[in-house]
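Batch 3, record 17
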Amino acid sequence: AQRVTQPEKLLSVFKGAPVELKCNYSYSGSPELFWYVQYSRQRLQLLLRHISRESIKGFTADLNKGETSFHLKKPFAQEEDSAMYYCAPPLPVDSNYQLIWGAGTKLIIKP
Amino acid sequence: DTAVSQTPKYLVTQMGNDKSIKCEQNLGHDTMYWYKQDSKKFLKIMFSYNNKELIINETVPNRFSPKSPDKAHLNLHINSLELGDSAVYFCASSQKDGTGGNQPQHFGDGTRLSIL
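Prediction for the assembled complex:
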């Protein structure tokens, strides 16, 4: 089955430190993956997608087919980065209707 | 010009009641979703609805029923509410791109449901 895994439920780093949120996928081929962010009590919103290869709010993510990963990185964390982060494919389920979203990682930036 | 709007934002009701949450998107998308986010922030897909074709997640109790009067609306009706239904419910929509792939989902603000 296709799966997206975020191994860390919680990640806490100090302001100014580098951040890496891990995401691994289990399906073959060329997956399309997104990172969504949810700030406290707000809606989920798209942060970035791998095909755009852009940097949003200082975050970047590269699809590594060899490691089947799509880790989200930022060189210097800021307090406003504290949020829930979800790694996800375009569709929330695979052809067998199994959930393939990541469980989310809560990022806390300590002052 | 909110893209995906849900009403109400907050819903407080008693166990056993029946309630509905409405969702509308003005993006012209062909697919809409309902998610349940629990207290641990785990996001669980409940339903996906594409051009009048309903995809049902089998783990959702049949007390939950989606209703789509048209492509721009996907409402969620819940019968006989239970304490465990307390959560934040998010509506989302997306569109296939020109190559048959799917664009990112756009989410509503969420409806915070509290069962007394």
